[in-house]
Write a structure and sequence with these properties.
The complex is a heterodimer of chains A (136) and B (348). Chain A contains four helices and no strands. Chain A is mainly alpha-helical and 136 residues long. Chain B is an all-alpha fold and 348 residues long. In chain B, helix 7 packs antiparallel against helix 10 and helix 12 crosses helix 13. The chains are: A mainly alpha (136), B mainly alpha (348). At the A-B interface, helix 1, helix 2 and helix 3 of A face helix 1, helix 2, helix 4, helix 7 and helix 12 of B.
Chain lengths: 136, 348
């Protein structure tokens, strides 16, 4: 086929139609009995306290930043892997492998730095750290 | 280059040009979609229970129909006819869209998977990159579900899901890149084609045999990607109820469940294509089964593997998960990539 993306578009359409049709069938079948208390957020049977729209320490902020760096790196590595074999045959290993090794090396140095600074781990809250210290 | 499924269908109808392409694509997409739905229907309500029961020495569903198979119909009716409870103060458009994002994105990946006997919807040159791209859309759905639910368990589950996907996405993709070095193409049919050469001992050069280390890394990273033990922290029933899906009921729950199982099968399909030679037998010159059956056997084998891990391996803690991902898997996957590049460079 001339353009593979026509088929991918068709599957996109199908993969939207399938969930929508399931929702429609369910809307025809299911009852609706609105009652007080039914719509409370589940908190193990307790009365819910407050909502979740609060300031919250996500504890892996630095890791998420690192992810962006490495994700872009994977994008840059993919084209290299595709042409690597032909590249070695045409230009030899010195010209195809070494630049990529330098590139990965720079990122590994970055990772090592982040590792040493404790960025690549779950950040414990000060309270958790204090209690851990007192039990030791 | 073998023709794709839409081509076969449009020539069957005697259609050509753009009309043939569109009609063939639509019919093919419906076929592939229903095929994956059937497999999920078989896996979710029935096979999963049977497998877990076998691991824990129980019997599981056996009352409805032969081998309890009709439980699939009963469960479908039961779940679809449940009341849909919308909790207070949920973030409406996002909360409603999340199940759709999860279910749809998992189905999208199957467009480029070669399933044998010419069953492949599309074969773009960027096939492998495409499949990883759509598979990771699911993370967005998880965040939407977790944050919009207005539930503390959901919020924690959603955040954990992101942390996990951030940590294991890169090892997954980098390990796949090390395979691309062998194959020299991102096209799925090309990757399968490259694995048909003889390796020795009558075996084909499946990348699982050529580079078992990469295979192992990919298998582990894939477990994290689909959120199964030991990496099921985002759902962790004993800690945070059901994580991001706590507040979902009725058809929305079905969609999330469907998305999850489609994702496991998509992971299996990627493993089958990239490491297990796609829809072919492992032996040179001996096919035994038709290609399509080989494909089904392989993705069910991966499904069985995830269920085995689910029954056998304890969960890692969230902080351990981050450390395993960033200090272990990431470093190992880059070591694997560099080593593969050096070895291929020396041989070539």
């Amino acid at each position: 086929m001339s353009n593979p993306w026509i088929a991918i578009g068709a599957l996109t359409l199908v993969s939207i139609i399938i969930p929508v049709s399931m929702v429609v069938v369910s809307a025809l079948l299911r009852p609706s009995v609105p009652e007080q208390g039914k719509t409370a957020v589940y908190e193990s049977g307790e009365v819910p306290t407050g909502d979740t729209r609060i300031r919250f320490n996500i504890q892996y902020y630095m890791v998420a930043l690192l992810f962006v760096v490495f994700d872009i790196e994977t994008v840059l590595i993919f084209p290299w892997t595709v042409i690597y074999r032909d590249g070695v045959q045409q230009f030899g290993m010195a010209q195809t492998l070494v630049p990529m090794l330098v590139f990965i090396g720079v990122l590994v140095v970055g990772l090592a730095w982040a590792w040493r600074n404790g960025a690549v781990q779950w950040v414990k809250s000060t309270r958790a750290r204090d209690t851990a210290g007192s039990t030791e | 280059m073998a023709s794709t499924l839409p081509d076969t269908i449009s020539s069957l109808f005697g259609l050509g040009g753009l009309v043939g392409d569109v009609v063939g694509s639509l019919v093919g997409a419906v076929l592939v979609g229903s095929l994956m739905l059937t497999m999920t229907a078989l896996a979710g309500p029935w096979a999963k229970r049977k497998i877990t029961a076998a691991f824990t020495d129980r019997i599981a569903v056996n009352r409805v129909g032969p081998f309890g198979l009709l439980i699939i119909v009963a469960d479908a009716v039961r779940l679809l006819s449940k009341e849909l409870i919308v909790p207070e103060d949920v973030d409406r458009p996002a909360w409603d869209l999340a199940p759709f994002v999860l279910a749809s994105s998992a189905l999208l990946g199957f467009a480029v998977i070669p399933m044998g006997n010419g069953i492949q919807l599309a074969d773009p040159e960027v096939g492998l990159a495409y499949v990883f791209a759509v598979a990771s859309i699911a993370s967005v759905g998880l965040v939407m579900a977790g944050y919009a639910s207005n539930n503390k368990f959901s919020l924690l589950g959603g955040l954990r899901a992101v942390a996990q996907n951030l940590a294991y996405e890169i090892p997954l993709v980098i390990t796949a890149a090390s395979v691309v070095i062998f194959a020299g193409t991102l096209q799925m049919s090309g990757i399968v084609e490259a694995q048909t050469a003889a390796l020795g001992f009558g075996l084909k050069s499946w990348y699982a045999f050529v580079n078992p280390f990469a295979f192992l890394l990919f298998l582990v990273a894939n477990l994290a990607e689909v959120g199964r033990n030991p990496f099921d922290t985002p759902e962790a029933p004993t800690e945070i109820v059901a994580g991001y899906q706590t507040e979902y009921s009725s058809v929305y729950f079905v969609l999330m469940y469907l998305g999850e199982f489609l994702h496991i099968f998509l992971g299996g399909a990627i493993i089958a294509t990239v490491f297990l030679g796609g829809p072919t037998s492992p032996f040179v010159g001996v096919e035994i089964l038709p290609g399509f059956l080989w494909f089904v056997v392989k993705i069910w084998a991966v499904f069985l593997f995830t269920q085995w891990m689910r029954s056998a391996i304890p969960r890692v803690r969230i902080d351990q998960l981050i450390e395993i991902g960033w200090k272990g898997m990431l470093v190992l996957s880059f070591a694997n990539l560099v080593l593969t590049a050096v070895i291929v460079g020396v041989i070539a």
